[in-house]
C-alpha cells in the first residue's frame, strides 16, 4: 500500500513547478526534494532549499521524516543537523507533554504536498516557543534585521547551488489554470415569439368566459 500511495503522490507533485523531486530508483521510500520559496513577502524568497524525505514501511499510517540538506539554515525550528521540528510530522494522537492536539499532528489524510506546504509556511512563521535552535529563536525575536540578513545570505548560497537550468517559477506560472465556463443553451434564450408567449391556452379563455357567465347568472337571481 505504501508504494502505491507514494507513486500516486509523486506523479501529482511532478506536475508542480514549485517543487523538484528525485527518487532512488531502487528505494522509493527515500526522496530528494528541492523547494522554491516563491512567496515574494518572505525573507527566504528566491531560495532553492534542498531536503530529503524518508518514508516508513507503514506510510501513510505513520509520518515521514524531513531533513534539510541545505547547510547553515538559521531558523528557530531547524536543528543544526537539518532536521525539522514541525507538528504535522509528529506521530498521530494527542501529546499531553507538548500540548499538541491530534488535529495538529500527523494523520492518514496528510501527504507529501501538505507536509511541504507546511514547511514553507513554517519558514515564514516559526514557532519560537518550541524552538529546535534556541539561538535562532532569540535572534528572530530580539534582532530581526540581523536574522533577516543571515537568511538572505543562505538564499544567495542556494541560488548558486541550484540545478543547472533550474529557475524559480513566476507567480503567473503558479496561478491555477482558469476553468472554461460551460456554454449556456443558446436555443433556450433565443426562443421565437410564439415560444415566448407564456399566456393561457384557448381552453383557459373558454373557462374564463364560463366563469363570467356564472357570475352574471348569480346577479340575475
Automatic annotation (TrEMBL):
Domain UBC core: 1-160
Pfam family, one: UQ_con
Name of the protein this chain belongs to: UBC core domain-containing protein
Stretches with biased composition (Acidic residues): 184-221
GO MF annotation: an example: ubiquitin protein ligase activity
Membrane spanning stretches: none
Chain segments carrying region Disordered: 158-221
Amino acid at each position: 500500500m505504501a508504494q502505491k500511495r507514494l507513486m500516486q503522490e509523486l506523479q501529482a507533485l511532478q506536475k508542480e513547478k514549485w517543487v523538484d523531486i528525485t527518487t532512488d530508483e531502487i528505494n522509493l521510500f527515500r526522496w530528494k526534494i528541492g523547494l522554491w520559496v516563491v512567496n515574494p513577502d518572505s525573507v527566504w524568497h528566491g531560495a532553492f532549499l534542498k531536503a530529503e524525505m524518508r518514508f516508513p514501511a507503514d506510510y501513510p499510517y505513520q509520518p515521514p521524516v524531513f531533513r534539510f540538506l541545505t547547510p547553515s539554515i538559521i531558523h528557530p525550528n531547524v536543528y543544526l543537523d537539518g532536521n525539522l521540528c514541525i507538528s504535522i510530522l509528529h506521530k498521530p494522537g494527542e501529546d499531553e507533554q507538548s500540548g499538541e492536539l491530534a488535529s495538529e499532528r500527523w494523520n492518514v489524510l496528510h501527504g507529501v504536498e501538505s507536509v511541504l506546504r507546511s514547511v514553507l509556511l513554517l519558514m515564514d512563521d516559526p514557532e519560537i516557543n518550541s524552538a529546535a535552535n534556541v539561538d535562532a529563536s532569540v535572534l528572530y525575536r530580539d534582532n530581526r534585521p540581523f536574522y533577516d540578513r543571515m537568511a538572505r545570505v543562505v538564499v544567495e548560497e542556494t541560488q548558486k547551488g541550484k540545478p543547472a537550468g533550474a529557475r524559480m517559477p513566476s507567480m503567473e506560472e503558479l496561478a491555477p489554470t482558469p476553468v472554461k465556463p460551460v456554454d449556456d443553451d443558446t436555443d433556450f434564450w433565443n426562443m421565437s415569439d410564439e415560444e415566448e408567449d407564456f399566456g393561457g391556452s384557448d381552453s383557459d379563455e373558454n373557462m374564463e368566459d364560463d366563469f363570467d357567465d356564472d357570475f352574471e347568472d348569480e346577479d340575475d337571481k
